[in-house]
Structures are given as C-alpha cells and as structure tokens.
From TrEMBL, chain B:
Subcellular location: Cell membrane
Source domain of life: Bacteria
Keywords on record: ATP-binding, Cell membrane, Ion transport, Iron, Iron transport, Membrane, Nucleotide-binding, Transport
InterPro entries (alphabetical): AAA+_ATPase (IPR003593), ABC_transporter-like_ATP-bd (IPR003439), ABC_transporter-like_CS (IPR017871), P-loop_NTPase (IPR027417), Siderophore_ABC-ATPase (IPR051535)
Protein name (database record): ABC transporter ATP-binding protein
Organism: Vreelandella sedimenti
Entry similarity comment: Belongs to the ABC transporter superfamily.
SUPFAM superfamilies to which the protein is assigned, alphabetical: P-loop containing nucleoside triphosphate hydrolases
Annotated membrane topology: Peripheral membrane protein
Length: 371, 271
C-alpha cells in the first residue's frame, strides 16, 4: 500500500515528541494519567459509570437516612444525623445507634453481596437468569445453616455452614451439568433441581424439631434481617470488602468473558482460571450473605438488572450492581418493617413480592435498542 | 505502525501433533510449518480436522500428543497474555455483546498490551486509529456492531485483531456466512495484512477462494495432510477428487495465474 510510508513517518515524528500529541480518551471516558517510575500510567473512567455510581450512592444514602428515621419510633431526619454522632436525646441515640444502625448495615451488606454474586454468576454463565438464587446456591447455604441453627448434632457457626452449603450446591449443580459447562439451559435446570432438593431438606429439618425452634428459625428461612446469627455480619463485611476488591481486579477479564471463550482466550485471558475465580467469589459471597439474612436471592437478580439498565454495555457494572443491591435491600426491609407495623414482613417476602412482577416485566418488555 | 520484516516474524509449526475432539482422534502425527509473511489456507472436506488443527495452533485445545511450536518454544508453556501479543485469533461466528460500537470492539484488541494502570496510551490511540483505517471502517467508527452488514462486521472483527498487533493471525472460516461481495472485502483485507508483514493462516471450506487468495495451501482429509504448497502446483484434478469426491476441469486464471475449478461434477465411480 502506497500511503503506508507517509503514515508511518508521521507516526514516528509523533513518537519522538510524545508530549506534543494530545491523547484523546475514547469517547465517553475520562482519562487520568500520571508519570511514575514505572513509566506513563493511565486509568480510564467511563463517564456514564461515574454518574450511575454517584447517583446510586446518593439514593442509597437517602434511603439509609429514611431507614434510620422511620419505624415504631420515628426520629426526624436531622435528629438521625445528630444521633449518629451521639448528639441527640438518649432515646433517639439508642434507637438509631443500637437498634437500627446494625440492621441497616446488615441490609446494605447482604444486598450488595447478593447483587455482586448475582452479576458475577450471570457474567460467568452469559445468562441473566443464572443467579445464585436461581441455580440453587442460596438454598444449599440455607439448608446447611438451618441444620446448624436447629442444632441437629452440628455446632459449627452458621457462616461456616452456609459457606459449606453454598459450595456443596455449586459442586452438585456443576457436576450434574457436567460436560455442558456453565452455558446453556442444562446448567440452569440442574441448578433449579438442586435448589428444590435443598429447599425440601430445609423444610424436613424444620419439621423434625420442636415447634418453637422451628418458629424461631422460620423467618430466617424465607429471608429476614431480624434473626442475624452473631458474628455473621462481621464476616460478611470482611468478605464483601475483599470480594469487591477482587471483582474490580477481575473487571477487565469479566468484560471479556462476555465474549465467546475463543475470543476471550485469543485476547490473552486465561478463561478457565478466571471462570473458577469468579465462581468461587460468587459462591463465597452468597454463603456469607445467606448466613446473615437467609435466602434473599431475588436481590441477586434485581440489583444487577437495575445496574445494567442504567449502565452502558461497554463493561460489567460491578460497583453499580452492588450499590443497587444495597439500595433495594434497604428499601425492601424498610417497607417490611413499616408497612404492616407492628407486624414485620420478612425482607425475603418483600423482595419476592416486588421481584416477581419485576422478573415478568423483564421477560415481557420489548428489547431495548442500543444506538 | 512498525511493519516487521519477514525475517523477524516468529515461526509457527507443529511437531507430530495429535488432537482429539471428545473421544474421537481427529488429527494424528501432523508436521507442518507455516510460511512466514504469507497467507496459508487450510482446506478439506467437512470433518477433516482443519478447524481442530487451527484450534490447536491457537492453543484453544490441548493436543494429546506432539507440540505446537512458536519460534521453537512449546506454546502450552507460554503465558496466555504473552501468546496474545504474538498470535491473534478470529473464531468462527464471533459474537460481540450487544450495543458495542466498532471502535469499542477494536479497542479490545489492545487488551494484551494494557494493564490496570496502563489503560489508554498514545500507542493505543494510534493503533486503534490505524486499525480503523486499515479495515476501511473510519466512516463506521461509532456505529453499533449489530447495525453493520456481514462484511463490515467481519472487517470490524479483523480490525480488532489488527489492533492486537500480532505478527500471526489465525482466522477460522472468516467468510463462511458472507455473500460474494462481502467475501471479497474480507479476502482483500487479509491479503493486505500479509503484504504488510503478517503471517495469516485461515481455515476455508471453499477451495476456489483458497486458490485465489492463498500463497500456500494445506489440504487435509481424515486428519492427514494430502497436499501442501502453492495452489498453482498442488491443486490437481486428482487432489480435488481425493478431497471432495468430485470431478472438475482445471483452468488457469488469465489475470492472476491461480488455478480455477470449472465444470465441477460428482464422480461417477459406480456409473
């Protein structure tokens, strides 16, 4: 081709004076660049992702103030802010700090963990139905944790049991889908079957114990923030922080896992290894979250769906999904606490009542068009 | 963009390569060397093992025996990312996540050259621009991949592999779903890339296009190599019969000198 020498001479001139050439970030991105001893470094921030994350964070903070303010005793929003620093009256301090704040933390962290686990599993399977809740991992974690709560000769802490249950369910699902991998319906159907079996095991465990014990465990088996085993929240917070960091480190690989394996592999992604890492992360987050709130799997579907509908299709909206999950869980538990007060609706039931129609809407609505 | 000279191109070859698909041994004891800076076409009937061979060359599947050598080193031992700076692959019927634009797709080609703290350099910008221009896609840069014609879409995918800046490019049936005009678009781009110092290997099911656009032909049947060399010397009536069980008349293209298949018909072995 004749034009090539001309083009390359222009380019050589450019590389001789790199500072003269302005680097235009790709359309829709901000580029942060700096020079370090490792040479020129740069990070791209997608503008829309920044807007979406800031917006979701704002909505989450607003919802949190509402959450702390409303209930059997209403505390005015300004008093809530004062109470957070112990500067309100004794009653408000107690209600906000001792009663509502720990539960808010539990709601936010479980919501974020379920949604993060959801978007990881969906990306892994390239199927938006493939969330841990649907492929039986929630139910596996619940069955194991219930076994430890109702005390059938097992006295391991619920988080450890939930993790073991989540892992067992994942191994079973993958084993039963053997050969067909994580893509396709065989995997989903196997997961639904595994989930049904573990759901039955949970009921069986509850049927065998004294009615009072079963009653105490019941809200938790449908998903509730009212019966948090001690220590489970601290473990979840730790797991969530590590999980978010790991997910962000995997973000570039996750973006490429949306392509076919051959394409991702051709672009330098170790597909098998990344898959395993993403799967382990998703299973661990699910187990830790179930240990706190029981199976609220619907959040794993709704959170990522909100995040994706707000975000562009360029990447996998990891932090947006986590924020959306936290927001949904906080609002759902707020509704559960206040709507029929003094009766409390377990958060798992609220998310199911809202999430069911939501799921139908996703299936029925016309495909959105991209431009 | 620097255009590597032929002598600097890495060599790709296999040594008694054996591969299976499931329980079935597809190829066995294959020794090939791919000529650097040339277009090689791998042809043969359905199920002859040509796509399996390409998958082996690209390290998508692990061989059961033998090795694939890149510059004399076993590719199984190379880190995935390092391999991706040497060898680009366009799989059959590649699918992009919906809503991606042409430029966004091409940017993914820079992946092996980037890192967490090296997400967009002057070099990236320059190479993506070059890939857009080389594939003739400047006018379509911001168009969604879903909205392109088959030929434009395939050129966008090839542009992604151009942005990967690898000396080796492997294509699996790059024109199988395209009409004639779009096929020519893709083949001319491939030819252009080889002229600019890339080694191209493509699996083709169409022997006629292989004759026209390949410098080197590898003809396979039942996992074995039947013939290897420049199309003008290796394509014979016997070869066409061996590969596809058809008779034909061979002519020479008056413009390019490449073999032309005419009057292709079924072999009447038993009358």
């Amino acid at each position: 081709m004749k034009p090539t020498p001309v083009r390359s001479s222009v380019l050589n001139a450019a590389s001789a004076r790199p500072n003269r050439i302005p680097i235009a970030p790709p359309q829709g991105y901000w580029r942060l660049a700096w020079r370090s001893r490792h040479g020129d470094q740069s990070v791209l921030l997608e503008r829309r992702a920044v807007t979406v994350n800031v917006g979701l964070l704002g909505a989450f903070l607003l919802a949190s103030v509402l959450y702390l303010s409303l209930g059997s005793v209403n505390v005015a929003p300004m008093a809530v802010l004062h109470a957070l620093f112990g500067k309100a009256d004794v009653m408000a301090n107690f209600v906000v700090q001792e009663l509502r704040l720990p539960r808010l933390a539990a709601a936010a962290c479980t919501g974020a963990a379920f949604a993060l686990a959801g978007i990881l599993m969906q990306t892994l399977a390239r199927n938006r139905l493939a969330t841990p809740g649907i492929i039986g991992i929630d139910n596996g974690a619940t069955a194991f944790a219930v076994a430890s709560i109702v005390g059938i000769g097992v006295s391991i802490a619920p988080p450890a049991m939930a993790l073991a249950g989540a892992t067992t369910a994942a191994v079973l699902t993958f084993g039963l889908a053997a050969g067909s991998g994580t893509q396709g319906y065989r995997f989903i159907v196997a997961g639904i079957g595994v989930g049904a079996v573990f759901g039955a095991v949970t009921q069986l465990l509850l049927a065998r114990v004294a009615i009072d014990t079963a009653n105490a465990a019941y809200p938790w088996t449908v998903g509730s923030l009212n019966a948090r085993p001690s220590g489970a929240l601290q473990l979840l917070i730790l797991g969530l922080v590590l999980g978010l960091i790991t997910a962000l480190m995997l973000a570039r690989s996750l973006t490429l896992l949306r392509f076919k394996d051959a394409t991702a592999s051709g672009l330098g992604i170790n597909v098998k290894r990344r898959r395993l890492e993403v799967l382990l992360l998703s299973v661990a987050l699910t187990g830790l979250a179930v240990a706190v709130a029981g199976p609220v799997g619907m959040v794993g579907l709704i959170g990522p769906e909100i995040a994706r509908s707000l975000s562009s299709s360029r990447g996998v909206p990891i932090t947006a999904a986590a924020l959306a999950g936290a927001l949904v869980m906080v609002l759902a538990d707020l509704a559960g606490r206040t709507l029929l007060a003094p009766i409390e609706i377990p958060v798992g039931i609220v998310t199911a009542v809202v999430g069911g129609p939501w799921l139908l809407w996703i299936l029925m609505r016309p495909q959105r068009s991209f431009t | 963009m620097s255009q590597p000279s032929n002598s600097a191109l890495p060599s790709l070859s296999t040594q008694s390569l054996g591969m299976s698909y499931g329980a079935r041994q597809v190829i066995n004891g294959l020794d090939i060397a791919l000529p650097s800076g040339k277009v090689t076409a791998i042809v043969g009937p359905n199920g002859c093992g040509k796509s399996t061979l390409l998958a082996g060359l690209a390290r998508l599947h692990k061989p059961d025996s033998g090795t694939v050598l890149l510059d004399g080193a076993d590719i199984q031992r190379l880190p995935t990312r390092q391999l991706a700076t040497q060898l680009a692959l366009l799989p059959q019927e590649a699918v992009a996540p919906e809503g991606l634009t042409v430029t966004e797709l091409i940017r993914f080609g820079r992946q092996p050259h980037q890192g967490w703290l090296r997400q967009w350099s002057l070099e990236d910008q320059r190479v993506v621009q070059h890939a857009l221009a080389a594939a003739g896609l400047e006018q379509l840069a911001d168009r969604s991949i879903d909205a392109l014609s088959g030929g434009q879409r395939q050129r966008a995918w090839i542009a992604m592999t151009i942005a990967q800046q690898t000396p080796l490019l492997l294509l699996d049936e790059p024109t199988s779903a395209l009409d004639l005009g779009h096929q020519i678009e893709v083949f001319e781009l491939v030819k252009h890339l080889a002229h600019h110092g890339r080694t191209v290997v493509m699996v083709l099911h169409d022997l006629a296009s292989a004759c026209r656009y390949a410098d080197h032909l590898i003809a396979m049947r039942e996992g074995q190599i039947v013939a290897e060399g420049p199309p003008a010397t290796v394509v014979t009536q016997d070869l066409v019969r061996t590969l596809y069980q058809v008779e034909c008349t061979l002519l020479t293209d008056p413009d390019t000198g490449s073999p032309l298949l005419a009057n292709v018909r079924r072999s009447s072995v038993s009358g």
